[in-house]
Design goal:
This protein is mainly alpha-helical. The chain has one domain (about 1-425). Helix content is about 85%, strand content about 0%. The chain contains 13 helices and no strands. It starts with a helix and ends in a 12-residue tail after the last helix.
Amino acid sequence: MSGSVTAIVGSLVASLAIQVCGVLTGIITARVLGPVGKGELTAVLLWPALLQGLVALGVMPATTYFAAKNGAGVFGTALFTSLGQASLLAALGFCLAPVVLGSYGREVVLAGQVCAVSMGVATVAENQMALLNGHMRFRAYNGLRFWVTACATLGVLVLAAAGLLTVLHVVLAWLLANGATLLAALWLQPARRINFQAELFRQLLGYAARVYPGNLSSLLNNRLDQLIISIALAPADLGLYAVAVTLAAGVGLVGSAFVSVALPAVSRAGSLDEQREVAGRLSRLAATSSALSALALVGLLPFLIALFFGPDFLPATDAARILVVGSFFFNMSLVLAAILRGLDRPFDASKGDMASLVLTVIGLVALLGPLGILGAALVSLVAYAANCAWLTWAGSRALGFSPVSLWLPAAADLAFVAGRIKLAARSGAARPGQATPARGDQ
């Protein structure tokens, strides 16, 4: 568990840096493109991401799981699998872009086709990152998480400074960033033996098949509101909602730090008692830190919107407040789902996502028309909370203790974290000249 705390801190730092880059990119694109252009950009990025979820088949968490269990022999099989997925994704996206984005104009359609190719490259890169995560090489994993966002942000900054910022150019910046990340991820692998193991491929797909329903449902729960808004409402409404989603994602930077650690840490725990200790502590610390960040963010939203995005986006304030609360439940659901997958119960993690997707569809049909983006935010809150409730019950049953034990921090948790911080501080003071490892080891 001590290594997990170090990994969580590193993941939190990476998530914070990623969030800063994401907000910076969101601010620049919103101010330069305006509500309409921001809506077009959101639509272009949204559809290929949904296609990626359709063709991903749960392979990335399966890759992490088997890399944690089996060691370095997963590389070749995972690489060939992700290349097949990437090819399918790029072909589907290229063909479907004129259908789903045709009403936005020819340049937006072209941007959608380029984005599909970019997401194909990202699929292979993310699979390689999943391998690093499974090998517990958290520094490399978190470094690559930040690297791809930093590269794209740098591209947006250069385009804005040169007066060349358009929807198509933003997508091209992401394509270059994903390509650079793929090359770096391949170089950082501890072993690069290119061999295809049919039995391992079968096991990967078997695990992925149990993960896939939940992954796809979770993706749709997270994106269906924007998807329907892009079809049913004006581009300006989608632009306002995209800003609300961007701000609510601030809660996620805390939760994502725990998500990336939970699956490999729980799956590597040697006994059920060790799994209980690791999973319980990760869940309780995630709940506490996410709740504190959500409370801090809610009160600052009007100020943040006016300051960073401009007064044209102030109508997004109420939707953003609701989405901040929903983001708390959504990110706790991701943590709890990662714990269940680490316990080799991926389908238990999927059931709540599938049920909450039904709630999302019904709610959007009922509320999007009369309430607009406010209705979409309310639906997301209810769906995320319902899924979180199910995962809490399923996790407590799998671990054999009370649901409260997954949420309320104990004095031992806080003492443990304080002890780790003191130990890290003493270690850093004792070795002021020690060099940082060049290749992302734990």
